[in-house]
Write a structure and sequence with these properties.
Length: 440
């Protein structure tokens, strides 16, 4: 399963210009009169030249490729086409780490014998745009060294490949999920018509191998999924899928009764329109059989409860967990306790900084004090897994357009509960860089 042929540089060029023009406009609002006058003069000279060069470049590309300018047409179904799967991407300059201007949103899984897998998405332009592609990397030495073994990238310059998630199912099979979407109305924002997006996956039965055989990509359902699936006590697998449109029951639970062969929507929670922010929800089955959904909102973390196995959900209301509008991570541990990884203390909403781990022994009604994993501003989007030996592995990103780091650390449940100075130091010492994008 290999793919060839670069994505179109014209699209990358336009996306880069759009990103930097946005930053320029924002900065202009805070300049004094003298600086504004100088900038206007410079732009009067430079922008015509940039537009002329861009026009020439796109005109040359258009002879071979359709233009990426403007929104997708209603009859464009390229987001339904299987993507390219590129093996050994480091051998292709197009996908080398040096060419990346964006790196972020990582996910981690651990095979039965301890091989680590991490996925994220990247791009040669600094935005979250149609130039994004998914990267899969693996380590056989506890994260000391990493090798990028897969890139997943749409054939179409109109389609994003983004928001991946990686997961080991109960049968030991490794799943790589990601979203493919196209513009509607020239935006990725949550608007009335939203984006045409779908959750895709490929799998391998041999995640202990450094170079396993992979299945063909297949589309599972509409929407976007960027958080771990949950296996319920009755054996049903549940995907937390978001519909990126302003609709009811947008934070869905999509289930499989046949171990991933087929999928169907069972139900979903409705986030009020004035609180929606991409959802990024996670589902926990509580010990009383109810399902607890935590959802990213504009105000932080909302919650909803289902008493009928996910068919219907209570109104979404603010949870007691304070948080910025960002992804968090919650998971049932081998002990039966819950792990929560979030920014800052339980009762404090910080910026995207101070990533901390907490333990709950009463199904999330109360939480331990936190173990600090990383204090820096610009860290975000934790995800992870506990291995059979009790080690908890967490990945997250740092400075998506600057340092472009994908990071990993490890600790145990006892480390969180004890919170000693020595344990804190060990967590820092366990931190590893999985990937660093941009010029090396």
């Amino acid at each position: 399963m290999t793919g060839h042929g670069p994505r179109h540089t014209g699209a990358r060029l336009l996306s880069s210009w759009a990103f930097y023009v946005t930053i320029l406009i924002q900065s202009f609002q805070h300049m004094n009169k003298e600086k504004k006058t100088f900038l206007i003069k410079v732009c009067g000279i430079c922008f015509p030249l940039l537009l002329l060069s861009g026009q020439c470049f796109i005109s040359d590309s258009a002879a071979k490729n359709r233009s990426v300018i403007g929104s997708a047409t209603e009859n464009d179904t390229s987001y339904l086409d299987p993507p390219r799967v590129i093996m050994n991407p480091s051998e292709t300059k197009e996908y080398s780490v040096e060419t990346r201007a964006f790196t972020g949103i990582s996910s981690l899984a651990v095979s039965q014998n301890g091989r680590l897998w991490v996925t994220w998405y990247a791009g040669e332009t600094p935005g979250e745009d149609e130039n994004n592609y998914v990267v899969v990397s693996t380590s056989g030495d506890q994260g000391e060294t990493w090798e990028e073994v897969l890139v997943i990238d749409s054939w179409s310059e109109m389609v994003r490949s983004f928001d991946p998630e990686i997961w080991i199912d109960p049968d030991g099979k490794l799943w790589v999920f990601w979203a493919q979407a196209t513009y509607i109305g020239g935006t990725w924002r949550l608007i009335e018509q939203g984006t045409r997006a779908g959750v895709w996956a490929l799998t391998t039965k041999n995640p202990d191998d450094a170079d396993p055989e992979w299945s063909e990509p297949r589309r599972l359902t509409d929407g976007v999924m960027m958080c771990k699936p949950t296996v319920l006590s009755d054996g049903i697998w549940a995907l937390p899928v978001s519909i990126w449109k302003i609709v009811d029951e947008n934070a869905q639970m999509v289930i499989s009764k046949d171990r991933g062969k087929t999928w169907e929507v069972r139900g979903g929670a409705t986030v009020p329109r004035d609180a929606r922010r991409f959802d990024e929800h996670m589902i926990v089955e509580r010990k009383d059989g109810s399902l607890w959904m935590l959802i990213r909102t504009l105000y932080g973390i909302g919650q909803s409860i289902s008493q009928d196995r996910g068919k219907t959900w209570s109104p979404v209301v603010p949870s007691t967990i304070q948080h910025p509008s960002a992804r968090f991570f919650i998971r049932r541990l081998n002990s039966g306790n819950l792990l929560l990884v979030k920014h800052g203390p339980i009762d404090m909403s910080t910026q995207r900084s101070h990533l901390m781990a907490f333990i709950s022994r009463d199904d999330g009604h109360s939480w331990s004090d936190g173990l600090l994993l990383d204090e820096r501003r610009g860290i975000s989007y934790p995800d992870g897994q506990q291995s059979s030996d009790g080690t908890i592995y967490i990945t997250y990103d740092y400075d998506r357009r600057g340092h472009q780091h994908i990071l990993m650390t490890r600790f145990t449940e006892d480390d969180v509960i004890m919170r000693s100075d020595r344990k804190l130091l060990e967590v820092y010492q366990n931190r590893r860089v999985v990937s660093q994008g941009g010029p090396q």
